[in-house]
Hints:
Shape: globular
Radius of gyration: 16 Å
Order of helices and strands: HHHHHH
Amino acid sequence: xxxxxxxxxxxxFSFITISILTLLTYKTVYGVFLLASFGSSMVLLYGxxxxxxxxxxxxxxxxxxxxxxxxxxxxxxxxxxYIIIPLAVGFGVxxxxxLNVTHPPAGGNPIIVIIGSVSFDYxxxxxISGSLIIxxxxxxxxxxxxxxxxPAKK
Length: 154
């Protein structure tokens, strides 16, 4: 596949997937499905789906773990914001690597959580629900449209 074709398709399928999340967020009453770091996830899921960082386990648990850590620091660590943000990011990155679920876009989730002062409901929507939608979309698009082996076989 040429670089031009690969870039066009990655952009197109990123547009489609983020459109689904945007429509669900703004045109239904089901909640929030968008997370800023999902935009970065698109780069891996459609541009480099063979990467270990793009595998469903990494996408789901990377987003889940880093968001959870951000929520813990936001709600239970009584330090100023300029201390809890770097601590939460450091712990999030460390835990993703320790648990072998590294997904680089998720490294920004603690910042999003803390600056946004989100509630624990944020784990369900957008993190869990949105992650599942982008994973299902990536599997369908990569397997059935692009004819790629995704998730990658070990």
